[in-house]
Amino acid sequence: MRCVANKRIITILLGLMIVFPIHSWAEKNGDSLIPLGQSIGVQLKLEKPTFVHDVLIDEKLWFKSGDQIISLNEKSIKSIADWKKISKESKNPQVSIEFLRGNKRQDVLVSANKLETMLPFIRDYTEGIGTITYVNPKTNEYGALGHQIIDQQIVRIPPFAGGSIFLSEIAGIHKSTPGKPGYKIAKQASIHVQAGNVRENTIYGVFGELIDPNMKKGKAIPTVNAHNVKKGQAELFTSIDGNDVRAYQVNIIKIEETTFQFIVTDTELINKTGGILQGMSGSPIIQDGKFAGAITHMVVDNPVKGAAIFIQEMIKKQP
């Protein structure tokens, strides 16, 4: 998912610098997690087809970005395919469209010949790329991104009815420079092979069940309590070429309540990427063989510097 730049530390999509007490959930329950770091495509099926741009209906009436379509001619709409089917079946010069704006249902009559022209401004899914953080080998549950998905066109958290993740390959890198965050150029390895489902989209990440057994390969390691994360060397696991995950050196410089700050010190990573990239959100950080956290932030003016959420905070899924 792409970063939204601010002057100081920024989150990819939502700020997570919220102070809450840490609970040693993973340590208390004896769970170990497999750190991952692969690039993934995330696709969420929207609860209802949604306008992603304002669309003029007549001289005074507009559909607004974020309006959710409920029905055409009193027939329920759940996808763009439904919209197309009902549009073709309609024999009347005008079509009744029921839609939801905020919490209010509204009806409007629209000329039938305008239905097809509206299609480019409607979506029934939202998608992007990020990094998968971990999988629990006992339950197959994964966590990814370390932040909530917000649709950048409708500028809100998309109500969704299920979703999928797909393994992505990094085809190229646009390097970060001070003041200009770089990004991964990714393509889905196969849009037809689902790596997992999406069950939750919370402020601490995207969560679901991993389906692809090939992504579970790796050694499960213990998660570390926030109080045991210390300043000093650690490793960042991420993919910047194809789907090959490698470890890169970082230095943890500040410990906070739910997050910690770090600097990328690995010269190879800096030379290739300039530091932290958009699309690295969710990349796991390991210290002394234990799972410490996942990247969520970067400093725009100094792209080698960023911040991460503690893994035990992320596992809680909500504050």
Automatic annotation (TrEMBL):
Signal sequence range = none
- Superkingdom of the organism of origin: Bacteria
Q: Pfam families, per this entry?
A: Peptidase_S55
- Domain (Peptidase S55) spans 99-319
Q: Which Gene3D superfamilies match?
A: 2.30.42.10
Q: Which InterPro entries does the record match to this protein?
A: PDZ_sf (IPR036034), Peptidase_S55 (IPR008763)
What protein is this chain from? Stage IV sporulation protein B
